[in-house]
Amino acid sequence: MTEWEKYQQIRREAAFTGLALLVLILFWCWAGFGLSDVQVELFGLPLWAVTSSIGVWLFAIVLVRVLLKFVFRDMSLEQEKEAGSHE
Protein backbone atom coordinates (compact mmCIF):
# COMPACT_ATOMS: atom_id res chain seq x y z
CA MET A 1 0.00 0.00 0.00
CA THR A 2 1.48 3.36 -1.02
CA GLU A 3 1.73 6.35 1.27
CA TRP A 4 -1.05 8.05 -0.71
CA GLU A 5 -3.34 5.03 -0.34
CA LYS A 6 -2.62 4.95 3.41
CA TYR A 7 -3.42 8.67 3.63
CA GLN A 8 -6.69 8.17 1.76
CA GLN A 9 -7.64 5.24 4.01
CA ILE A 10 -6.91 7.25 7.15
CA ARG A 11 -9.03 10.14 5.83
CA ARG A 12 -11.84 7.70 5.00
CA GLU A 13 -11.72 6.19 8.49
CA ALA A 14 -11.74 9.65 10.10
CA ALA A 15 -14.67 10.81 7.96
CA PHE A 16 -16.77 7.74 8.74
CA THR A 17 -15.91 8.01 12.43
CA GLY A 18 -17.12 11.62 12.41
CA LEU A 19 -20.28 10.56 10.60
CA ALA A 20 -20.86 7.80 13.17
CA LEU A 21 -20.48 10.39 15.93
CA LEU A 22 -23.07 12.64 14.27
CA VAL A 23 -25.48 9.70 13.93
CA LEU A 24 -24.89 8.81 17.59
CA ILE A 25 -25.62 12.38 18.71
CA LEU A 26 -28.81 12.44 16.64
CA PHE A 27 -29.86 9.09 18.12
CA TRP A 28 -29.14 10.40 21.62
CA CYS A 29 -31.31 13.49 20.98
CA TRP A 30 -34.14 11.34 19.67
CA ALA A 31 -33.82 8.73 22.42
CA GLY A 32 -33.75 11.35 25.18
CA PHE A 33 -35.84 14.30 24.03
CA GLY A 34 -37.95 12.58 21.39
CA LEU A 35 -39.23 9.96 23.78
CA SER A 36 -39.75 12.31 26.75
CA ASP A 37 -43.53 12.43 26.19
CA VAL A 38 -43.90 8.63 26.15
CA GLN A 39 -45.37 7.42 29.43
CA VAL A 40 -43.68 4.00 29.46
CA GLU A 41 -41.43 2.78 32.25
CA LEU A 42 -38.67 0.21 32.03
CA PHE A 43 -36.98 -1.07 35.21
CA GLY A 44 -38.84 1.65 37.12
CA LEU A 45 -37.32 4.40 34.96
CA PRO A 46 -38.94 6.44 32.20
CA LEU A 47 -38.30 5.04 28.72
CA TRP A 48 -36.37 8.15 27.66
CA ALA A 49 -33.90 7.68 30.55
CA VAL A 50 -33.19 4.08 29.58
CA THR A 51 -32.90 4.73 25.83
CA SER A 52 -30.77 7.85 26.24
CA SER A 53 -28.25 6.05 28.44
CA ILE A 54 -28.16 2.29 27.94
CA GLY A 55 -29.71 2.49 24.47
CA VAL A 56 -27.13 5.00 23.23
CA TRP A 57 -24.33 2.90 24.70
CA LEU A 58 -25.57 -0.22 22.89
CA PHE A 59 -26.10 1.75 19.67
CA ALA A 60 -22.51 3.06 19.90
CA ILE A 61 -21.24 -0.53 20.17
CA VAL A 62 -23.20 -1.46 17.04
CA LEU A 63 -21.78 1.57 15.17
CA VAL A 64 -18.23 0.63 16.15
CA ARG A 65 -18.78 -2.94 14.96
CA VAL A 66 -20.07 -1.62 11.62
CA LEU A 67 -17.05 0.67 11.28
CA LEU A 68 -14.67 -2.18 12.07
CA LYS A 69 -16.31 -4.53 9.58
CA PHE A 70 -16.83 -2.19 6.63
CA VAL A 71 -14.55 0.86 6.97
CA PHE A 72 -11.38 0.22 8.95
CA ARG A 73 -8.51 -1.73 7.45
CA ASP A 74 -5.52 -3.26 9.19
CA MET A 75 -2.40 -1.69 7.70
CA SER A 76 1.13 -0.97 8.71
CA LEU A 77 1.87 2.68 9.39
CA GLU A 78 5.60 2.11 9.04
CA GLN A 79 7.23 3.74 6.04
CA GLU A 80 8.03 1.20 3.38
CA LYS A 81 11.54 1.20 2.01
CA GLU A 82 11.69 1.97 -1.68
CA ALA A 83 13.18 -0.68 -3.94
CA GLY A 84 16.82 0.02 -4.66
CA SER A 85 17.40 2.44 -1.77
CA HIS A 86 20.36 1.78 0.51
CA GLU A 87 20.15 2.93 4.11
Architecture blueprint of SSEs:
Layout: H1 3-34, E1 41-42, E2 45-46, H2 47-70
Antiparallel strand pairs: 1-2
Q: How would you describe the overall organization of this protein?
A:
InterPro entries: DUF997 (IPR010398). Keywords: Membrane, Transmembrane, Transmembrane helix. The chain crosses the membrane at residues 14-33, 45-68. This protein is mostly helical and 87 residues long. It has one domain (3-70). It is built from two helices and two strands. It has helices at 3-34, 47-70; strands at 41-42, 45-46. It has a two-stranded antiparallel ribbon with strand order 1-2. Helix 1 runs antiparallel to helix 2. The longest helix is centred in the N-terminal third of the chain and has 32 residues, at 3-34. It starts with a helix and ends in a 17-residue tail after the last helix.
